[in-house]
Amino acid sequence: MAAISCHLSSVSSPDSVSLSSTSSLSRSAHTLRRFPSVAVSSPAIRRRISCQTVSSAPSSSVNGKVVPFHFVCACPKGYEPDARTIKRALKAGVSKIEITNDPKEAVKGADFVYSDVWASMGQKEEAEYRRQVFQGFQVNEELMELAGPKAYFMHCLPAERGVEVTNGVIEAPNSIVFPQAENRMHAQNAIMLHVLGL
After folding, report:
1. pLDDT tens digits for range 10-56
2. pLDDT at 6 over 50
3. In angstroms, rounded to a whole number, what is the distance separating the alpha carbons of residues 123 and 34?
4. Domain named Aspartate/ornithine carbamoyltransferase Asp/Orn-binding: which ranges (predicted)?
5. Is residue 175 classed exposed, middle or buried when 0-12, 13-18 and 19+ CB atoms within 10 A define those classes?
């Protein structure tokens, strides 16, 4: 997957917001309250998220229940998420899913732009080939401008700067990649406590 755009639909209670899936998409929207720059509890929150990722589209699965939102994936032809993944996402609560080959169209008006590496672990032998295939899908300043001034940038890290995202985007004031990484630590701690029965 090269680009994903998600649009939140009606959210009755900001505290109940939860976006959930495996791999790089495994995030909880309610944890965004921890980000000082993101006002999830605000009634004026916009209803669109836009993300850019690559490595896990065909194999990623969606678990749990999610708040209804509009999800748009932009990727090169041949890298679209499979029908089973889309069906599971819809069943979990994603209200609308679009697949496009145009990242510029996918991010327009987005609240969040999400990126991942183009070649993940176990795919490094494909890295050079993927760099060619994914040309035009890099999250750069131009793409973020299309998303709008209120759009936040997210990445599950580590990032390959200059490949799937520019240095300028990842270091911009609207980049929340480091608070996002910190939230992951708290989530992992909670899982360990749960597994240990503490």
Report:
1. 333 333 233 333 233 333 333 333 333 333 322 223 334 444 433 33
2. no
3. 33
4. 66-194
5. buried
Torsion sign, CA atoms 102, 56, 6, 45? negative
Catalytic residue numbers, as ranges: 156
Q: Name residues whose C-beta falls within 8 Å of residue 115's C-beta, 6 or more positions apart in sequence.
A: 51, 52, 53, 139, 153, 154, 155, 159, 164, 165
Which pLDDT tens digit goes with each residue over 134-157? 999 999 999 999 999 999 999 999
Query: For residues 166 and 18, what is the distance between their CA atoms, to the nearest angstrom?
Result: 28
| Structure tokens given for 109 | 């008006």
- 129 φ, ψ (degrees, to nearest 5): -65, -45
The pLDDT of 160-169, averaged and rounded, is 97
CATH number at residue 164: 3.40.50.1370
Q: Which domain holds residue 179?
A: 3-195
For residue 52, count CB atoms less than 10 angstroms from its CB and return exposed for 0-12, middle for 13-18, buried for 19 or more. buried
Q: State the total domains in the chain.
A: 1
Question: Which residues, at least 6 apart from 1, have a Cβ–Cβ distance to it below 8 Å?
Answer: 53, 54, 55, 56, 57, 60, 73, 75, 79, 80, 81, 116
Cα separation, 54 vs 115, whole angstroms = 8
